[in-house]
Amino acid sequence: MKITRSMVLVSSDPLSLQRGSLEIYRRFQEKLESYQLAEEVALSTITDVGNTEASPVVVIYPEAVIYGPVQPENVDRLVSEHLYKGHIVEEMLVPKRHLPSRMAWLQSRKGSLPAQQRILLARVGKIDPENIEDYILHDGYQALAKALSKMTPQQVIEEISKSGLQGRGGAGFPTGRKWSFVASAPGNKRYVICNADESEPGTFKDRVLLESDPHAILEAMIIAGYAIHAQEGYIYIRGEYELSQKRFLKAIEQAHEYGFLGKNILGSNFDFEVHLHSGAGAYVCGEETALIESIEGKRGEPRSRPPYPTTHGLWGQPTLVNNVETLANVPPILLHGAEWYRRFGTPSSPGTKVFTILGNVNATGVIEAPMGITLREVINIYAQGMKNGAAFKLAQTGGSSGSLIPASLQDTPLDFDSPRKAGVSLGSGALLICDDNTCVVDLVKVLLRFFRFESCGKCTPCRIGTQRCYETIRAITEGGGQLSDLDGLLRLAEQMERLSNCGLGQTAAVPIRDMLKHFRTEVEAHIRLGICPTGICRMVPEDETAELIENQMV
Amino acid sequence: MAGLATAFGSGAMTNPMEDVVQHARAMLIIGSNTTEQHPVFGTKIRQAVLKRGVKLVVADPRRIDITEYATLHLRHKPGTDIPLINGLMNIILANGWQDDEFIANRTEGFDELKAVIEEYPPEKVAEITGVPVEKLRQAAEILALNKPMAVMWAMGITQHIVGVRNVMDLANLQMLLGNLGVSGGGVNPLRGQNNVQGACDMGALPDVYPGYQKVNTETAIQKFEAAWGAKMSEHFGMTVTEMIPEIESGKIKALYILGEDPVMSDPNSSHIRHCLEICDFILLQEIFPSETSRYADVLLPGVSFAEKTGTFTNTERRIQMVRQAIPPLGEARQDWRIISELAQRILAFGSRQVNANAPFAQWNYRDTAQIMDEIAALTPSYAGVSHARLEAGEQLHWPVKDANHPGTPILHVGQFTRGKGKFTPIEHIPPQEMPDDDYPMLLNTGRVLYHWHGGEMTRRATGLMQVYGQALVEINPDDAERLGLNGNKRVRVSSRRGSIEAEAWVTERVPPGMVFANFHFPEASANELTIAALDPVSKIPEYKICAVRVEAIRG
Amino acid sequence: MKDQSTKDLPIAAIVEAAIEKHGTNYDAFIPILLEVNKAVGYIPLHALKEIRLRVRAPEDGIFVNEGRLYSLSSFYHMLSTKPRGRHVVIFCESAPCHVVGGRQVWQALKENLGLKAGETSEDGKWSLVTTSCLGTCGVGPVVVVDDEIYGNVTPEQVPEILARYE
Amino acid sequence: MISLKINGIPVEAPEGTTVLRAAEQAGIEIPTLCDHRDLTPYGGCRLCVVDVKGWRFPMASCTLPVAPDMEVTTESPALVESRRTILELILSNYYDAGYEDSLGETQLMRWAKRYGVDPAKVMLKKPRFAVNSDPNPFIWVDMNKCILCTRCIRACAEIQGRFVWSLVERGFDTRVVAGADTDMLDARCESCGACVAYCPTGALNNKMSLSLGLPDKVVTTTCTYCGVGCQLDLNVKDGHVVRVTSNPNAPVNGMHLCVKGRYGYDFIHHAERLTKPLVRQYLLEGTPRPKGRGEWVEVDWDTALDIAARKLAGTRDAYGADSVGVLASAKCLNEENYLMNKFARQVIGTNNIDHCARL
Amino acid sequence: MPLINSPQDLRRVREETLQKRLLQNQASRIQIIVSMDTPAIAAGARETMQAILEFIEEEKLNHILVKKTGNLGFDSWKPIVQVVINSQSPVTYRKVSPTVARRIMEEHVVGGKVVQEHAIHF
Question: Which of E20, E71, E74 sits opposite A211 (nearest CB)?
Fold first, then answer.
């Protein structure tokens, strides 16, 4: 793996382009070559810097400095002074007052990684997750203490509402609103459920939080319990996450010992208990009602909604179900206030997002960045470019149920609104980045096989639809496709989206739709020409039993 | 239902089944294998437990299916129902859980009851019944504190020499708790056969005319003499359990039997066979040749329920239509026609004085609707019943006092038939025949899900026979081991009266020391073994307890 | 194979211990099954009976039968209703591993073990199964053998990994 | 009561009613396969989807509770298209082995016809399961026709309370099995047939009635077995009872019956039925009664009744009325028992009448 | 009785922990932090940790404090080890196999020289 010593990002939003940023980029390429720095310095672009006066800007790492406005003729000086000699060119820096929040994070340097905005991951990699003292030392349980001693439950909910926090499980529902629904729903008991059944392929942000900072999630659950008048909480951790379970159990135990769980927490009259419930290998249990069914000792078949868990949840009582990442936002919001929180991200999607980066890129793993970052930025800044210099072909966002984002849409900001507008979804924050050696039909086949395997089987469109879609796509990869199949596929996908009981069946259609929307030529090549352009599909019938995943269990 | 009649003035299930399953908060099932004998009601009880969380206490020596749904299973020794019930009442009184207001306003005889109940402290009761004190206390608490509570029983309570006393004691319990005349409560004897209730209502009993009008009362005698135009007998007749043995003494010379099989259904079969054998004349009206038909002189072919129209009255006093679906098979005739024709012929012989002008002297019925009109005219509790109302879809539980009366789903609301409910103190009497050295085990008898009564119909249903094709004798694994059954499944069960050979079903349904047999199969009918000890009042035999010896048959 | 030895395993004690830990309420069913699966390698039918006998409690409104437990066991893929080999090789076949070389690793596993998906070797040593994502995609392709997880697996490493198990 | 509009028609329904039931009460039929008024709503088949104003996608009306001012549309070209897709998908995983059953048109076939889906075109070409896969004598199990509506599972759980059926596996591999994938009777089935009564496809069928053809008459009557008083429908063909079916309006039992009520009817036509009056030879010959009573002789009704009447009257006259005993029957009609009572008391003059109430 | 019964208790415990840590840091001049989450373990972090502990054992370097933490850096870098000497900013190493670990121990921890080819420059 190539490790670059520095990284240069040239802004390429429409305004910057108009002001000649393309030329700046070209000059950088030239100069880096001539200074023989091309091997050590990565060069890329960045969009939507949100600053008209300073654009075009150039960002250079690891110092995380921002120059602007930059003219093509400045490039030589930046290369020779900054990149060659290592001096920051002070007079070319963007003045502080011209740095809006959208840019500010580019300069921040928290943690060991470049330019992350770490709110949720602040302690990750810094503390020993099995040591409650480490957690307490790093502001742990301060938010809980504040809530219990200085705030009413209503005030807690108000603060969360004001922060604009939206659910990070994928749907983006306003968290404060959900909390107030549950708090006001009639019922004998109320429950907090932390959804840690993180099963979207490629998503492991929750695992990182649970393994690296379990007390943060526990603290958030306790605060949520206080806010909605619950006395019991469940955390549903998927069975495959053994280490997460182990560490969370330890956290529960320590919290009892220290008095953050149990009766009269921190001297208040609030009691709270948390139970850990292990999943047992079913993707669909990530769906909140399936998860509730699973806790109740049933098959994880999603319920029909309405009614929603906010009124009819666990054991039929009002239940708050929040994703791990959503909850992780709660303590910092309470501790620092909603105003502080809204400084991050975009006005419509405040805060940060934890992304998992995977696929054919140089660096894979988890990062936290403000909402609104673009795919291109992720690939080039964090993932350190495509592996082996291959070209970026597409990214799948949000696990199996996410969209396929073609290269042409890589500048779409990743927040709750923009992808929706562009017809793609942010989902769980997984970014599977594929290079041009990836066959989209093969990829979609794998995804459909996954859905067919993970469908609970309750509703017709999902149970049979995923199988029929899989069969059709498989036939295409085996040279047995027909052009007319594509219309049938699209029609079936549309109906699955319309008719399925839960998100699984609805989103199983998304990759098919995206494939036919963005990569139809490639699909048709399989059918018309009988070849797979990437050479991945063998175009002959494959051994059925080897590929089918009948009765598979871990 | 003499027991209930004593307590309340009339004896029948007080509350409809649906009312019990919808409104009871607790239930006591005692002496009823409900899911096998009244399967549809049994499943409704299961659902009441599943869906409404009803607290169910089952008292039964056997671990019958319904115990799976029981909050508490009291496995008392056979024949100890009275001490069990008295013991529960003792605990209830000791805790002050009784319904004082109900007792004061609607009952009499409480002090006498109390005196006897005090004789049954939990420790003593535990000793007699074999139910631990702790379980007795739990049961009493569940039954007393979840109101309304409904009591259900069947033959497990009545087929004892103390059957009537058992019933009266259950009535005591329910009066003590004030669970009568209320929705979801009541005393609810589950009637075994499809139309037992109706047959009783219709006066097919030796002591009453239709509607339980006593045959020895002046008003009733006058009423029926006027209606039928003939002189009525003024004394009680014999019950079936008396009639057949009285053949031997010569008191009974001839029998007219409609659709019954006493050889299979009556106790001590070999004695029954002997009596029938010597009977002068037996007229049997049946649909199949039966064990009894071997002793008949004339056999008239009647029809099945599918071939006739009329009414049945179910266990909850609901009168419902039976409708003819197919013509009578062959030359078979509808039973009501046969009876009428026979009656007309006998009357034609003229030795009995009948005033042909009496309103209901005639036997020339058009159809059963006309018969029902006659019933209505003579039976106060059926006064408002007619086929027309039933065909119009009306749901009628008797008493239906007139043509506009809507029927009476729940009995004893506000007042008992006899005015005040009567507490009757009941003392324990041990069963007639208990195991001894010669016959060391106890035999309990009853039915199984797949068969019915003497088995005349169900043994002729192919599928039922495939599932349950031969008599099985339930025996506890401990006993099976002691007897050296070792996989060899055939056993011989003998009593002082006879013996049968059958396949053993080794199961924990029965406690050690008990075997359970059914009477569905002639080749191994439990009634070859049972004792003809009768309840002194109801004349019901003690089917549920007799002493037997069990041996493995080496083959 | 594991099923042959289940006769010797104290199923009742395993169930008892699991109940001790998780209770007998409805929310304990799946955890109890997980414990049995872990201890036995799969869920034998008589374990279902043991669970039913111990868990069923009409007094608390808890009803369960073998059918429901079997249904759960077959729904959740970490539970197995069939006996498994001494060592279970689990391969993540989700898209993230697939695009970074998972295909080739899968081929190598099948060839080295001589098994197809879902099969158990005749000597009862190996079972080969697939799973959905294990959440360790950052080090994909991922192979799990029993409780050990291996990341960044290449086809060449497969024989070496398998050789560690007896 | 909640007010809403279905197809523009104002409808009132109690809180908690589903849209499907509210529509039904208003006389609007919404197609469904998995829903049944006796069973907990499931929402699996998705045939009952309706458009609800304000919602982007159609909603399953069988699980959707009515809400104030809701505006529901139950049929539209898009919904028809959706229903067709559902039926095509269902039938693409269905196989009909072509045997004749006595159910008539199943609900599945009814909807297929209504929405113009030809089962023959889309269904599987070969069976996935054995066509008759369970050895029990009453219930025919052909899982090739199972569409996983789970009505059988719910009927067994929510009506019979026996939990015989359950789902195993998941996704496309989901199947309905008895117990832990065993035979029904081993799974503690009580053969009540509720699962058959609720099955909308014929995957569960009445084994005894298979290939007996459609009834020409259906008669509602009361069961002849226990005292519960269930009502049931006798299906009659050519004067034969060929099947017993549930009558949803039965006041005591609704759709429910037990094994005897539903499957214990074949005694009616049993070869041993008595169809001719019989008298003992000695009675015809006027000779003394031999030991064992002698041979039976078939006679006409007149002869039989005449002999019986003479003997009974003779006994009464010779030994007094109380020498005759009359046993009525708890299996017979009220009317017949009344006549037996009248017979004993009026015709004979005795109170020696009883029946087996005690036994 | 739990250890903490009021917000004041929490503040106190935090202070005490802080003091304890300061003392600890003075005692252990050198701290080695190993990333121990699932991908790190999958990539061999257990073996790496083992190698480090063995080295300390062999060389009797009792003043070194070895700690574990959760996710530290990219998965593609794992196993990851951080070396902190005298509370200065840590040096982060990527792809630390047991062999590399021994080299880091020898060259950096003992020898004071950063092993450049495994150090992360960002």
Answer: E71
What residues in C contact B53, CB-CB < 8 Å?
A: 61
pLDDT less than 70: residues of chain A: 1-5, 47-51, 62, 97-116, 419-425, 543-554
Residue E2 counted as domain residue: no
Length of chain D: 359
Q: Which of C90, C100, C133, C139 is most worth mutating to test chain E (most E CB atoms within 10 A of its CB)?
A: C139
- Give the pLDDT score at A545: 43
Q: Where are the alpha helices (DSSP H) in A171-287?
A: 175-184, 205-212, 214-228, 242-258
Interchain CB distance below 8 Å, E121 and A5: yes
Which residues, in sequence order, are CB contacts of C134 under 8 Å at separation 6+? A240, C90, C92, C142, C144, C149, E38
Report ipTM (2 d.p.): 0.91
Q: Are B210 and D338 within 8 A, CB to CB? A: yes
CB contact under 8 A, E42 and C135: no
Q: What is the CA radius of gyration of chain D?
A: 28
- D169 interfacial to chain C (CB closer than 8 Å): yes
Q: Which residues of D touch A294 (CB under 8 A)?
A: none
Q: Give the pLDDT of residue B88.
A: 97
Query: Looking at domain B196-397, which of 2.40.128.110, 3.40.50.740, 3.40.50.410, 3.40.50.300 is its CATH number?
Result: 3.40.50.740
Other Cβ atoms closer than 10 A to B216:
14
**What is the average pLDDT across B197-213?**
94
CB contact under 8 A, E72 and A112: yes
Does any CB of chain E come closer than 8 Å to the CB of residue A246? no
H-helix or E-strand spanning residue D121: helix D119-122
Enumerate domains of chain A plus CATH numbers. 6-107 (3.40.30.10), 132-339 (3.40.50.11540), 347-435 (3.10.20.600), 444-548 (1.20.1440.230)
Q: Which CATH number fits domain D2-75: 3.10.20.740, 3.60.10.10, 3.30.1490.20, 3.50.50.60?
A: 3.10.20.740
DSSP string, chain C: -HHHHTTTS-HHHHHHHHHHHH-SSGGGHHHHHHHHHHHHSS--HHHHHHHHHHH-BGGGTB---HHHHHHHHHHSTTS-SS---SEEEEEE-SHHHIIIIIHHHHHHHHHHHT--TT-B-TTSSEEEEEES--S-GGG-S-EEETTEEE-S--TTHHHHHHHT--
Please check whether the domain covering C87-162 is classified as CATH 3.40.30.10.
yes
A544 and chain C: CB distance < 8 Å anywhere? no
Nearest-Cα distance to chain C for E48, in Å, is: 14
Q: Do C27 and A297 touch (CB under 8 A)?
A: yes
Q: Does A369 lie at the interface with E, CB-CB under 8 angstroms? A: no
Number of domains in chain E: 1
* pTM for the model: 0.91
Contact assessment for residue C57 and residue A219, using Cβ atoms and an 8 Å cutoff:
no
Contact C135 A553 (CB under 8 A): no
Helices (H), strands (E): how many in chain D? 10, 16
Residue numbers in C near E74 (CB within 8 A): 138
Region B27-47: mean pLDDT is 95
Domain B2-190 annotated CATH 3.40.228.10: yes
Q: Which of B172, B181, B170 is nearest to B148 (CA)?
A: B181
- The mean of the pLDDT values for chain A is 88
Q: Residue E71: which domain range?
A: 28-118
pLDDT along chain D (359 residues), means of 10: 95 96 96 96 96 95 96 96 97 92 85 95 93 94 96 96 94 94 94 96 93 92 95 96 94 95 95 96 94 94 96 95 96 97 96 84
What does each C-alpha distance from C153 to A446, A549, C157 come to in angstroms?
A: 19, 21, 6
